[in-house]
């Protein structure tokens, strides 16, 4: 994939995170460019969730630098990340089942006119997002309660809410875990559409088939450290698995690669 700019939208340099005496992340590096899909993979306990919390401001880093379009920024709380243009869709989806689709899309960002909810404007904006049919998972109406929707339909609602803020970076945490085969295929098509819109995507997934299908780069975490950064087109699934399990130690090579790139 060819990037318009060599400067990443989001870059993490030497990120460290501690919980008491436990080092959850040590000198972690990561880059995401506009229109690029980066898969973050690793075994359970590798540090993926902790790194996402650093990026989203839920658990700020103890050390390291975060750069946004080449400039150092501080992400100390979720509002900081949202202001920059970082949005996320997580495994629990964080939907309110008693509300309808429109209510969930605008949850916390309701449109008010003269102090009254503008239901017409919110419904129109929801339809303009054009996601309700993207996954070929037809939602009967944007006014049905979310409790009545399937897993795939709920996923669509959660992504619509994330895109409402026009993010530059979208984090997708195990997005296909609750989807069937056909719904997963349509969801991967959606990721391609996000790429075409110039949105950088951080895909956290255990499904290497999905990763190979849509990702441009794969970043492997192992025991809270980088253990490889691979180009999907030139890397086999076996190589990625080897890095995840620790059969191959790429941590030193990876750090040298970042240092070399910084000199260019």
The name CATH uses for the topology of the largest domain is Rossmann fold
Helix content: 25-40%
How many domains comprise the coordinates?
2
Number of helices: 9
Structural class: alpha/beta
Q: Which oligomeric state applies?
A: single chain
Note the gap between the termini. Answer: 19 Å
CATH class of the largest domain: Alpha Beta
Order of helices and strands: EEEHEEHEHEEHHEHEHEEHH
GO molecular function: ATP binding
Domain ABC transporter: 10-248
Keywords: ATP-binding, Nucleotide-binding
Pfam families: ABC_tran (PF00005)
Describe the 3D structure.
The chain is of the alpha/beta class and 264 residues long. The protein folds into two domains: 173 residues, P-loop containing nucleotide triphosphate hydrolases (Rossmann fold), CATH 3.40.50.300; 65 residues, no CATH class. It contains nine helices and twelve strands. The radius of gyration is 19 Å and the shape is globular. The C terminus is likely disordered. Keywords: ATP-binding, Nucleotide-binding. This is ATP-binding cassette domain-containing protein. One of its GO terms (molecular function) is ATP binding.
